[in-house]
Amino acid sequence: QVQLVESGGGLVQAGGSLRLSCVASGHSFTLYNVGWFRQAPGKERERVIAKAAIGGVTDYTDSVKGRFTISRDNAKNTVYLEMNNLKPEDTAIYFCALNRGSLFGPWNYWGQGTQVTVSS
């Protein structure tokens, strides 16, 4: 059973940056795709960015292109989300997830989430 724990969320002013981390335990995540999702109050959860295990293909949602970057350190079983030029509309709970199939899901393992709040 894979367990995921996110960290790094917090309160930041618009234009600022944050780096989220997601550590996987219970199984090596080398062969898993990794993804970051977010859910704002009153909205459905959306996939923000995902990176394939093989080949490193990365898929972004349009609203974060040029601002968010995903990276992974397989040796540390950790995936990162670097968020720059944050906007108030980026405020949400951010979740990491893993799967072995498509970057478009379904996603099999989820973390508990970390809150990101961007003030204007």
Description:
Strands 2, 4, 5, 6, 9, 10 and 11 form a seven-stranded mixed beta sheet that branches. Strands 1-3-8-7 form a four-stranded antiparallel beta sheet, with no helix packed on it. It contains no helices and eleven strands. β4 (33-39) and β5 form a beta hairpin. It has 120 residues and is mostly beta strands. The protein has strands at residues 3-7, 10-13, 18-25, 33-39, 46-51, 58-60, 68-73, 78-83, 92-99, 109-110, 114-119.
Distance between the termini: 40 Å
Quick one: biggest sheet? 7 strands, mixed
The Rg value, from CA coordinates, equals 13 Å
What low-confidence regions span 5 or more consecutive residues with pLDDT below 50? Answer: none
Strand segment tally: 11
Mean pLDDT: 95
Estimate percent helicity.
Answer: under 10%
With helices defined by DSSP (H or I, 4 residues minimum), what is the helix count? 0
Could you say which overall geometry the principal axes of the C-alpha atoms support?
globular
Find the structural class using helix and strand composition: mainly beta
- How big a fraction of the residues is strand? over 45%
Sketch the topology as an H/E string, one letter per element: EEEEEEEEEEE
In a nutshell, what does this entry contain?
With 120 residues, the protein is mostly beta strands. It has strands at residues 3-7, 10-13, 18-25, 33-39, 46-51, 58-60, 68-73, 78-83, 92-99, 109-110, 114-119.
